[in-house]
Structure formats: C-alpha cells, structure tokens
C-alpha cells in the first residue's frame, strides 16, 4: 500500500495516571492510506511511545468514529492537556485512528460537492467496513503482525463488530464503546422525510442539545468541564472546508442502514461470528445507543470468550469528553491490558 507521510512530531506529554503520574514521550504520525476505490484516501493518525521498537498484536489498537463526527477531533482531542489516544499510547500501545471516507480529513466523495438530494446515501456500512479493512491491512503490514485490537464508538461499534465477524483471524480483542444494536426507540440522527439524501448538514448549535438528551436537569451544568464543548466543536466543524465553521456535512449511509436494518428490527451483523474477547461499555444516560441495546447484544456474543458488559454512571453517549471520562479510559484500558498479562 502507498503511504503519504504528512507530519511527524515528537512531544513530551505529562499525564496523571490512575495510580501515579508519568511522563511519556510520544511520536505522532499522520498519513493517507488508499482505499479499495480509486481516488479515495483515508486519513490515519498514529501515536506510540518514542522508544517503542517491538510491535505486537495485543499492544496495537485501531479506532473508528461514529455516525456524524470524525475520529481525530474526539479520540485525539487534548482536553485538559490529554486525549484518549494519548492515554492509551502512553501506556505502551501503538494506536491508530481513521476517518471513514466523507468524514474529517479523509477524501470526500464527489457526491458531497453536489446537492444532497441529487444522489443516494453515501458511505454505507459495507463501504465503511471496507475502509476499515484497508486501514487494518495497512497497519498489519506496516508492523508485520497478524492481528490487532479494534475500538469503535457508536456507529463505529457496528462497523468494527461487522469487520470482526468477517475477519476473525485479524482481530485480537474488540472494544465497543456505546454499542449500537436493533433499535426500539427513535434515533437522534434523522435525515428528514422522503428519500434519504447523500448527506446531511449538521449545525454546531444543534450538537449540544443532542449531547444533553437524557441528562437530568440538575446534572447538566457540570457534566462537561468548562471550555471542553467549545474546544471540541471548534475543532470538529473546522474539518468541513465548506461549512464556514458553523455547519458540517455528514454522509447519510448510516441513516439509510438504520432504516433498512436496526430501525427495521434486522441485525446488521451476526454476533455469534465474533470470536475475539469483546467488551461492551456505555454510560447510563446514553440516548443515542441506549442501554437496552448493549443488554440485548451481550448474550448474543455466544462465541466471544471473556466477554463483559460495563455500565458507567453519570455519563452520556459522549462520556469520552465529560468529567467522568477517566472511568471510560480506565475500564477500556484494563480490558486491553489483560492480553499483555496472559
């Protein structure tokens, strides 16, 4: 595969860990990885300890985002001086994130330059899973390993679970943060009446309302530390060159998949074909992927050894950027660290 290096940086990062403070020097690389389709390249970011010279499946992680926002503005957003990607990499991991086509810094399909109603939904799940496959194969070849850990958030859990069910030999462990499954409540991501257009446009002022859905009134004021929402929103809306910082185009493939599968009572993937140890983790106030989804999915993972379901208190679908985010980080880290102790 062809790799285009965009940036290489070396930074000293100080973290307060769960037990003690540590300082780890991390290397950051950004690259564009070709997809299976000509002209479509996928943005990939890698972080790892500067002194890492040996690469192992159990110490490698690939992360993918959800339905609306790109990976790098959430997974690697330095809130309070630390991102989740920093947190994992500083603990001895080779960590990757990717933006699916149409999101973030990846190539936007030509349909996104036309009126949304002129084309059918883009970046359907099957296409997104192929994008993940392109990046996983790139990572495996780059590090000369046979498997990697997978971490998905929201729609990304459907994509990563689908990939894991179809590529069992390439998956070490599977962590699904805010797992999606068959829906019995209305989706918070809507495209409007009529045929689903190629993409939807999301306003910055709509994001906070969606974020706070399901949070008790007396808990809203201090859920997100001061400045964190604005930091995330500014970084995220800046990724769309046509949005002027106030609107963001998001592919509607996920919306159409929801109409045809999860919203219609049909499973998108077969949980019994997942053979890797699997973690389902979410927060109690999640209304995008409510707890009943994980609770229904969990017993269907009949061939996942060591599977577990973790519910976190006082958090939403976006607990990754809330005051209790370290509870998420610690639980996912403990799951991945198990492999290194065996």
TrEMBL record:
Occurrences of domain AB hydrolase-1 (ranges): 60-186
Pfam families in the cross-refs: Abhydrolase_1
GO cellular component terms attached to this protein's record: membrane
Keyword set includes Cytoplasm: no
Keyword list, A-Z: Signal
Top-rank taxon: Bacteria
Gene3D superfamilies cross-referenced by the UniProt entry: alpha/beta hydrolase (3.40.50.1820)
Cleaved signal peptide residues: 1-21
Protein name (database record): Lysophospholipase L2
């Amino acid at each position: 595969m062809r790799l285009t290096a965009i940036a290489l940086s070396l930074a000293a990062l100080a973290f307060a860990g769960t037990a003690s403070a540590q300082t780890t020097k991390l290397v950051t690389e950004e690259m564009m990885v070709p997809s299976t389709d000509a002209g479509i390249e996928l943005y990939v970011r890698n972080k790892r300890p500067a002194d890492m010279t040996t690469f192992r499946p159990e110490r490698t992680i690939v992360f993918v985002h959800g339905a609306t926002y790109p990976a790098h503005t959430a997974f690697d957003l330095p809130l309070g001086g630390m991102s989740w990607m920093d947190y994992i990499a500083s603990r001895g991991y080779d960590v990757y994130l990717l933006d699916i086509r149409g999101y973030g810094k990846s190539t936007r399909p030509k349909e996104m330059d036309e009126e949304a109603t002129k084309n059918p939904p883009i970046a359907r799940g099957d296409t997104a899973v192929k994008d993940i496959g392109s990046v996983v194969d790139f990572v495996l070849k780059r590090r000369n390993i046979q498997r990697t850990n997978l971490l998905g958030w929201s729609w990304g859990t459907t994509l990563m679970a689908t990939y894991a069910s179809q590529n069992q030999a390439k998956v070490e462990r599977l962590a699904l943060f805010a797992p999606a499954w068959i829906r019995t409540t209305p989706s918070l991501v809507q495209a409007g009446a009529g045929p689903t257009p190629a993409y939807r446009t999301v306003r910055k002022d709509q994001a906070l309302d969606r974020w706070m859905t399901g949070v008790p009134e007396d808990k809203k004021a201090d859920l997100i530390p001061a400045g964190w929402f604005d930091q995330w929103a500014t970084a995220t809306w800046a990724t769309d060159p046509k949005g002027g910082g106030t609107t963001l185009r998001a592919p509607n493939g996920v919306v159409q998949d929801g109409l045809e599968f999860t919203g219609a009572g049909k499973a998108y993937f077969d949980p019994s074909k997942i053979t890797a140890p699997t973690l389902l983790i979410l927060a109690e106030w999640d209304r995008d992927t409510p707890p009943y989804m994980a609770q229904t999915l969990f017993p269907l993972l009949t061939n996942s050894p060591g599977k577990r379901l973790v519910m976190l208190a006082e958090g939403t679908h976006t607990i990754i950027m809330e005051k209790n985010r370290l509870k998420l980080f610690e639980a996912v880290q403990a799951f991945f660290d198990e492999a290194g102790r065996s």
